[in-house]
Amino acid sequence: MVRYPAWDQDEARSIVSGLSHLEGATLPILHALQEEFGYVDPQIVPVIAYALNLSRAEIHGAISFYHDFKTSPAPRRVIKLCRAEACQALGCETMVDHLARDHGIDVGALAHSHDVAIETVYCLGNCALGPAALVDGELIGRLDADLLAALCSHHGADA
């Protein structure tokens, strides 16, 4: 997983000023900020708006319209849990219930106390070895509730 530097307002301002001369600079600026820090901190919105002579609403609209732009740092671990039919048949929904009931982790929500995002996906192409998940880009097959809980725990995030 890529580790980004902490948000630096001075560096962000430098990126904005370095790209503000471009025609249609909004998206290049947002992409550059996302590439540098992994997200676009909302505190930079007024700076971008001023530099481009646009409203804050226009900048916010661009950030919220494009789903690839994030407004907060990425979690330490991203788990994409397959919930397609084959994985359902092999027990993924039981694992989802187990996480919610025993660990207070809701699939589809960022579990801030665990610094883990668990997202639902529909088919990872690993049906024969389901239930399956993609953990920080690594495919895991034959997942069970205990392993999934360990991957979601703080200790699991360091592994």
Automatic annotation (TrEMBL):
<dbReference type="GO" id="GO:0046872">
    <property type="term" value="F:metal ion binding"/>
</dbReference>
<feature type="binding site">
    <location>
        <position position="87"/>
    </location>
    <ligand>
        <name>[2Fe-2S] cluster</name>
    </ligand>
</feature>
<comment type="similarity">
    <text>Belongs to the complex I 24 kDa subunit family.</text>
</comment>
<keyword id="KW-0411">Iron-sulfur</keyword>
<dbReference type="GO" id="GO:0016491">
    <property type="term" value="F:oxidoreductase activity"/>
</dbReference>
<feature type="binding site">
    <location>
        <position position="123"/>
    </location>
    <ligand>
        <name>[2Fe-2S] cluster</name>
    </ligand>
</feature>
<dbReference type="GO" id="GO:0051537">
    <property type="term" value="F:2 iron, 2 sulfur cluster binding"/>
</dbReference>
<dbReference type="Pfam" id="PF01257">
    <property type="entry name" value="2Fe-2S_thioredx"/>
</dbReference>
<dbReference type="InterPro" id="IPR002023">
    <property type="entry name" value="NuoE-like"/>
</dbReference>
<protein>
    <submittedName>
        <fullName>NADH-quinone oxidoreductase subunit E</fullName>
    </submittedName>
</protein>
<feature type="binding site">
    <location>
        <position position="82"/>
    </location>
    <ligand>
        <name>[2Fe-2S] cluster</name>
    </ligand>
</feature>
<dbReference type="InterPro" id="IPR041921">
    <property type="entry name" value="NuoE_N"/>
</dbReference>
<feature type="binding site">
    <location>
        <position position="127"/>
    </location>
    <ligand>
        <name>[2Fe-2S] cluster</name>
    </ligand>
</feature>
<dbReference type="InterPro" id="IPR036249">
    <property type="entry name" value="Thioredoxin-like_sf"/>
</dbReference>
<keyword id="KW-0408">Iron</keyword>
<keyword id="KW-0001">2Fe-2S</keyword>
<dbReference type="InterPro" id="IPR028431">
    <property type="entry name" value="NADP_DH_HndA-like"/>
</dbReference>
<keyword id="KW-0479">Metal-binding</keyword>
